[in-house]
Write a structure and sequence with these properties.
This protein is an alpha+beta fold and 694 residues long. The protein has three domains: 2-392 and 399-432, no CATH class; 437-540; 554-692, Immunoglobulin-like (Sandwich). It has 21 helices and 17 strands. It has helices at residues 2-5, 9-28, 37-51, 61-70, 89-101, 105-132, 142-153, 155-161, 167-185, 195-214, 218-238, 244-278, 289-300, 308-332, 338-359, 374-386, 406-428, 437-447, 462-469, 485-492, 514-522; strands at residues 389-392, 400-403, 453-456, 475-477, 498-504, 524-531, 534-540, 554-560, 564-571, 574-575, 581-589, 597-604, 610-617, 638-645, 654-664, 677-678, 683-692. Strands 10, 12, 13, 15, 16 and 17 form a six-stranded mixed sheet that branches. Strands 4-3-5-7-6 form a five-stranded mixed sheet. The longest helix has 35 residues, at 244-278. It starts with a helix and ends with a strand.
Length: 694
């Protein structure tokens, strides 16, 4: 009965936090003594920060996609087309969680809270374990406390604890996998031998396979772990002088673990290969090394929800703190803490370097994809600033005690200040809030009637809110095909009073503006309202609205060098200042090019002054830019583009020149590889004249 009652949102908010915290405390109680009570307070702080405003912001596109996938039968999830490049573990778990907790924002996001809180607890444990391997062997509790506190207030961790995505889960699993790997290779407890090490090996295999089933970037984690395992083998041979038989056993153990991970992942391997190799977006460009490092460092330290100025200061301070703290550790301690530092540095650097190399072939850069490396950063900061440093008892005595010096205290304080200010920005800076999907749905519920029609250019998460808001007008996701869009509108919007077009800021469904073109050509633009992340435009439709592209384009032969040819054209040759000039252009690629071109449609007065202008990338039906048009494919080496050219309301009546300018989307100008009538920024072709009447 309790499980069914958890569907109540109010009970969920009261019961789950208490149950989760009790579970975490119970799991840790065997290793917590009175002096470690601050660790529990850190966990309570982490829980409070993650529950604060958990359901304040709307579900956004990525979260809506997770809900959509998890809503399918669990057996169908792995092979859904919507999976793109995602393995099934998180979505399958979310499917079960939906049945238990319900579909409120609070309930949906709470699953990530669970994993994020466990990450804080595991970081505390691993920091304590690593600290015991660092000289001097004082079993200091400061590194674990500081590491846990940094993770608790991390804006990155709080942000992804409040999202219906797999990032909190993969962070927790990657940390658990590496935690077990360290205990397996460098046991510091009498029980970590014999049968216990066999159990650890099995646990490592299961956790790492679970990582692979949660996020394919686990391959970068495996790369780092295998390098560290190889270093451990060399350490045994050259430092501890293991015998050949012992080395062979250790090497066999290493190979067997990787084979076992591969066998566990084998059922997903074929699908994963198809997903990864089939995913490409030629419109993306690889980041430069500086951009890659800068954005990644900001995401993992200050987070991406803070203004650039404070972010730069915070990023710089974090880098200084990391460098200075470990410089002190290496300078002050003998022997030096090489092995823990090697583990953490490899964990952070190797996946980053591998990701950057992959990006040069498949550019799809988001720092969150590598969130699985961030535990290493918090451990580096916590161990560097919180690690004990020898302090001489007196100037004349060689004996020394060990404890934190004032410098680490100062560095720790700076770190916490950076993260706290960044976390405050995450909670309060609306510039970086998630898209206001709920606001759009609620507004449409008030503004539309049953005789209107609403089209959206993304399916998620709008339907999640449309159902709850009870929008009276029918709501349709419209996948825009320029060749069929007019027919679809004629079938669905005929007889409607108004057409509402909801466009998401991140959508590439209609980059050519086909729907606004058809709606305004058939009706009248009636208004526009901007929401965070969305733009809503609506159009009044006449009783006999007819949506259409021009039936035939007049043949023209405007050739731009040996690269592009404008071979079809239609435009409205008479208009008023309150109506836009419409135009439809057809381009064909003449030869392969590595330049991405843009088209600028311009209306010029007799004196050459531009009175109207709209610029847009030249895209084919796959929305590829010209550098990626396949010359041999007649369906993709050409493009139909539509334009609405707004005019000033006070534009004088008269005859104006309509021209198209082709130019390189990236400077310098004019366009490379084309020749003709040069303008200041490209190559121009006269299309005709437009008469503006009062």
């Amino acid at each position: 009965m309790i499980l069914f009652n958890l569907r109540s949102n109010s009970l969920l908010k009261l019961l789950l936090p208490a149950l989760l915290t009790s579970f975490t405390i119970t799991a840790m109680v065997n290793s917590i003594r009175r002096r470690d009570i601050p660790a529990l307070l850190i966990l309570w702080l982490a829980l409070a920060l993650r529950l604060y405003r958990l359901d304040f912001q709307s579900i956004w596109w990525d979260e809506g996609h997770s809900i959509f996938v998890a809503s399918h039968p669990i057996t169908a999830i792995p092979t859904l087309p919507a999976m793109d490049v995602h393995p099934p573990a998180y979505f399958s778990l979310l499917h079960l969680w939906l049945a238990l907790a319900g579909r409120s924002e609070f309930a949906l996001r709470y699953l990530s809270v669970v994993f994020s809180l466990l990450t804080v607890a595991l970081l505390w444990r691993l920091a304590r374990l690593l600290a015991r391997s660092m000289p001097p062997p004082t079993h200091s509790i400061w590194p674990s406390r500081l590491t846990g506190l940094l993770a608790a207030v991390s804006p990155l961790y709080v942000a992804y604890a409040q999202e219906v995505r797999s990032y909190a889960m993969i962070t927790c699993l990657a940390l658990a996998s590496t935690f077990v790997l360290w205990r397996l290779l460098l046991p510091d407890h009498r029980r970590d031998t014999g049968r216990k090490r066999g159990e650890l090996l099995g646990l490592y295999i299961l956790l790492t396979a679970a990582c692979l089933y949660t996020h394919y970037f686990t391959i970068f984690l495996l790369l780092f772990q295998n390098i560290f395992w190889f270093i451990w083998l060399l350490r045994g041979k050259f430092i501890h002088h293991y015998q050949t038989k012992t080395m062979a056993v250790h090497a066999a153990l290493w190979a067997a673990s990787q084979v076992a991970i591969g066998l566990l992942f084998a059922p997903q391997l074929l699908l994963a290969t198809r997903q990864i190799t089939g995913y490409t977006n030629p419109n993306l460009t690889p980041p430069t090394l500086i951009d890659f490092i800068s954005r990644s460092w900001q995401a993992y330290t200050t987070g991406l929800t803070i203004d650039p100025g404070p972010a730069r200061w915070g990023m710089g301070l974090a880098a200084v703190v990391l460098g200075v703290s470990w410089a002190i550790q290496f300078a002050a301690n003998r022997p030096r803490p090489i092995l823990p530092f090697t583990l953490l540095l490899l964990w952070f650097i190797v996946p980053l370097a591998a990701y950057f190399i992959i990006l040069q072939r498949q550019p799809s850069f988001e720092p969150r994809y590598l969130i699985l490396i961030t535990p290493s950063l918090f451990l580096l900061l916590g161990l560097g600033c919180g690690g004990p440093i020898p302090i001489s008892k007196s100037p004349h005595s060689p004996a020394a005690s060990h404890g934190p010096r004032p410098t680490p205290y100062v560095l720790s304080g700076l770190l916490l200040l950076i993260l706290t200010l960044s976390l405050y920005s995450y909670y309060t800076n609306e510039t970086y809030f998630k898209d206001d999907s709920a606001g759009v749905a609620n507004w449409l519920a008030q503004e539309t009637t049953a005789n209107d029609i609403v089209y959206i250019d993304v399916p998620h998460p709008f339907h999640y809110y449309a159902e709850r808001a009870a929008i009276p007008a029918p709501v349709h996701y419209l996948f825009v095909d320029i060749h069929t869009a007019a027919d679809q509108l004629n079938q669905e919007a005929a007889g409607r009073d108004r057409l509402f077009w909801v466009a998401w800021r991140g959508s590439d469904t209609d980059p050519r503006g086909v729907i606004p073109f058809l709606a305004e050509k058939a009706g009248t633009f009636a208004g526009q309202r901007d929401f965070r992340g969305y733009q809503v435009r609506w159009f009044d439709l006449p009783a006999e609205a007819k949506f259409s592209l021009p039936d035939q384009l007049a043949p023209v032969q405007a050739t731009f060098g040996d690269v592009l040819r404008l071979d079809g054209l239609a435009f409205g040759d008479t208009t008023t200042p309150v109506e836009p000039v419409w135009a439809t252009l057809h381009f064909t690629l003449l030869r392969d090019t590595d330049v991405n071109y843009k088209v600028s449609l311009r209306l010029r007065a007799g004196d050459g002054a531009i009175v109207g202008q709209v610029d847009r990338d030249l895209l084919n039906d796959r929305h590829f830019r010209t550098a990626d048009w396949p010359l041999a494919d007649p369906t993709l080496n050409q493009a139909t583009s539509v334009y609405l050219l707004p005019l000033p309301v006070d534009l004088a009546a008269g005859r104006y020149r309509l021209e198209a300018v082709i130019y390189n989307a990236e400077p310098p100008y004019p366009s490379e590889g084309v020749a003709g009538l040069e303008t200041a920024d490209g190559v121009s072709a006269l299309l005709g004249h437009v008469k503006v009447v009062p």
